[in-house]
Structures are given as structure tokens and as C-alpha cells.
Write a structure and sequence with these properties.
The chain is mainly beta. 4% of the residues lie in helices and 51% in strands. The protein has 2 helices and 14 strands. The longest helix has 4 residues. The relative contact order is 0.09.
């Protein structure tokens, strides 16, 4: 399997005669060395998230027999005008935590080029079943944690994040279904991520038991 850089995303929606004239080229192939990684080859490509300006992100499984014998591991990459950058991979340190990624899933790309994904952490050291899941965001070439299990939830007294799951995306906005933990019990909640916000981009929209329409300043969704 190989991955292609296509000059026009609209190729999927035009006739075959037009699509044949769209320039394309191979940028990576299965079996090739993974860019910048020691003794690691590309094994299989999965989901690609298209963006503007010729940029996109994609998931790839890797083979690294000297590092992880008899196993494959997942990685997330960004392609930007000929440059390929590693966003995250399993067994790599997870920013904002004391752990390493165990797996990566549910990636999404905003209209302004940010890449968000969920990840689980290896249970070792200070990482355990109560703090081994989180959501990270890649923006301006830097990876940072957005929210993690056990972190306090802004706007929800005595509540901590338990689980965030990407549910919808529209432009620069992402919707997350979530579980939050209050007093040892978990309850459903909904969050919105605003990729254009400079501070506090993740906001609580609603939680189980909240009054409908009680606070429009919190519950207002993007039009």
C-alpha cells in the first residue's frame, strides 16, 4: 500500500476524464524507512485527514523489530508541502504526562490545520487505570495535551475528565461526547473544542442533570 499527495481534493467528486488530468505523486510506500525513526519501516497506511493548502495528516503502522519484536505500532504524521512530520507514535513520551503512548485513535483535523487525537498510555510508573487516557492537539508544529483523565473540568465543580470521544467536526469546531467523574461516579457530558480560541479552547456544553437552556453562555453551539 502507498500514500499519494494529490493536487486537488475535488478529484473524488469529478468525472473520471477530469480526474485523470490531476497531477499526483507517491510520497511514501509500505516497506520504506519511516522518516526520522531508527530501524523502523512503514508497514501499512490507514486514515488520511485532508486539509487546505496541500496539507493532510495520516495514520501509519510501523515495523521496528529491534525496538518492538514481533509487533507493529501505530503512528500519526502530517504532510505539508513536501515536508513530513511525525506527530505522535506508540512508545513515545506523551506531552503533559509522565507516560508513553500505548495506542492512538480517533484523529481529526480542523479547518485551520490543527490535528487532534485520543490516546491511551502505558500503565507504568505513575500511570494507571485512573489517568491513562487523554486527548492531544498538534498545532504550529507542537504537540500538547488538551485534556486527560483525572484532570479537573473547568466549569464543573468537583468533576474530572474520565473519557473524551470525538463525535463531530465542523470547520474549526469539534464536538466531544464524554464521561466525567464526580464523587467516584461517572456521568455523560458534551464538550466543544474551538480551534480559533487562544485560551481555554475546550468548553463544557452540557452534562447529565443540567437544565436545558439554563445557561446560553455555556450551551451555545457554533452556527
Amino acid at each position: 500500500m502507498q500514500i499519494w499527495a494529490v493536487s486537488c481534493v475535488a478529484a473524488v467528486a469529478v468525472s473520471s476524464s477530469v480526474a485523470q488530468r490531476i497531477a499526483h505523486r507517491v510520497i511514501l510506500r509500505s516497506g520504506e524507512p519511516a522518516p526520522g525513526l531508527f530501524s523502523t519501516t512503514l508497514r501499512e497506511f490507514q486514515i488520511a485527514r485532508l486539509g487546505g493548502g496541500g496539507r493532510f495528516s495520516f495514520t501509519a503502522y510501523l515495523d521496528a523489530p529491534l525496538l518492538i519484536p514481533d509487533d507493529e505500532y501505530e503512528s500519526l504524521w502530517e504532510y505539508d508541502d513536501g515536508s513530513i512530520s511525525l506527530i505522535a507514535r506508540e512508545r513515545l513520551s506523551a506531552p503533559g504526562t509522565d507516560g508513553q503512548f500505548e495506542n492512538i485513535f480517533s484523529s481529526a483535523r480542523t479547518a485551520n490545520g490543527q490535528v487532534l487525537f485520543n490516546g491511551n498510555l502505558l500503565n507504568q510508573g505513575t500511570i494507571n487505570a485512573l489517568n491513562d487516557q487523554g486527548t492531544w492537539v498538534w498545532k504550529d508544529g507542537t504537540l500538547e495535551v488538551l485534556a486527560y483523565e483525572g484532570q479537573a473540568v473547568a466549569g464543573a465543580r468537583d468533576a474530572t475528565y474520565h473519557f473524551l470521544l470525538l463525535d463531530a467536526i465542523a470547520g474549526d469546531y469539534l464536538g466531544y461526547r464524554s464521561l466525567i467523574r464526580v464523587g467516584g461516579l461517572s456521568e455523560p457530558a458534551v464538550f466543544r473544542y474551538d480551534a480559533t480560541a487562544r485560551d481555554d479552547p475546550l468548553s463544557l456544553i452540557a452534562r447529565e442533570g443540567s437544565l436545558i437552556g439554563a445557561s446560553r453562555s455555556v450551551a451555545t453551539a457554533p452556527s
